[in-house]
Amino acid sequence: MRIYETANYEEMSRKAANILSAQVISKPDSVLGLATGSTPIGMYDQLVEWYNKGDVDFSEVKTVNLDEYKGLARDNDQSYYYFMHKHLFDRVNINPDNTNVPDGTQMDSEKECARYEKLIESMGGVDIQLLGIGRNGHIGFNEPDNCFAKTTHCVDLTESTIEANKRFFASADDVPRQAYTMGIGTIMKAKKILLIVNGEDKADALAKAVYGPVTPEVPASILQFHNDVVIVADQAALSKMPK
Ligand SMILES: N[C@@H]1[C@@H](O)[C@H](O)[C@@H](COP(=O)(O)O)O[C@@H]1O
């Protein structure tokens, strides 16, 4: 595991954008595993800026997103489909046909999860998977549990995640209770993983993920077993690391 400490959110975003664009420059038809949440917004903005300057070209890139709320229509401004179009896809020259987000409108969970898992396989796997981390150590929507989920599946969101994500909705009651997410096994198959973290409220989760025991109670702790993980985190997020 390589850990880069940055002074603040802006520097974290720039460093992460550097790593993603280096991937795209060295392999223009890379499969990028993408993530949502507030953490990657600055990184997407940076990538758009470099695209506008002609420094990075997305024309051959393919993408797969980690997760999606079950039951939200694509045009719902809280769906991850909407998020990805707003923050990245509609702002760069990526071919929309090459972008993939689990289909939250498919109410048959088994069918949708099997389709998505197969799709990732058919693309030849993920070259680099971007991750954020939840305050309870979740990655994608893999919540703390008593076992690691292998493949794409439907999850019941925990109260802590509903609480954390309600800021984006009119009220906690509007936050969907379920989501589709790549499994821990799906994520671990990515050739490279880029975890970005900012803010003191993530410091506990990050310290447990990196230095704690590997346990499904802290889903991100599994990353200790991946052989190519880069963490880009600001000082606040690294403030609880053991000295
Ligand atoms: N499913 C997403 C995760 O992929 C994300 O990493 C996490 C943290 O979000 P934020 O970056 O807003 O703190 O929240 C959500 O639950």
Automatic annotation (TrEMBL):
The keyword Transmembrane helix does not apply. GO terms for molecular function: glucosamine-6-phosphate deaminase activity; identical protein binding. GO terms for cellular component: cytoplasm. The active site is at residues 67, 136, 138, 143. Its EC number is 3.5.99.6. It catalyses: alpha-D-glucosamine 6-phosphate + H2O = beta-D-fructose 6-phosphate + NH4(+). It holds the Pfam family Glucosamine_iso. InterPro entries: Glc/Gal-6P_isomerase (IPR006148), Glucosamine6P_isomerase (IPR004547), Glucosamine6P_isomerase_CS (IPR018321), NagB/RpiA_transferase-like (IPR037171). Pathway: Amino-sugar metabolism; N-acetylneuraminate degradation; D-fructose 6-phosphate from N-acetylneuraminate: step 5/5. Gene3D superfamilies: 3.40.50.1360. Keywords: Carbohydrate metabolism, Hydrolase. Residues 10-227 form the Glucosamine/galactosamine-6-phosphate isomerase domain. GO terms for biological process: carbohydrate metabolic process; glucosamine catabolic process; N-acetylglucosamine catabolic process; N-acetylneuraminate catabolic process. Catalyzes the reversible isomerization-deamination of glucosamine 6-phosphate (GlcN6P) to form fructose 6-phosphate (Fru6P) and ammonium ion. PANTHER family: GLUCOSAMINE-6-PHOSPHATE ISOMERASE. Belongs to the glucosamine/galactosamine-6-phosphate isomerase family. NagB subfamily. This is Glucosamine-6-phosphate deaminase.
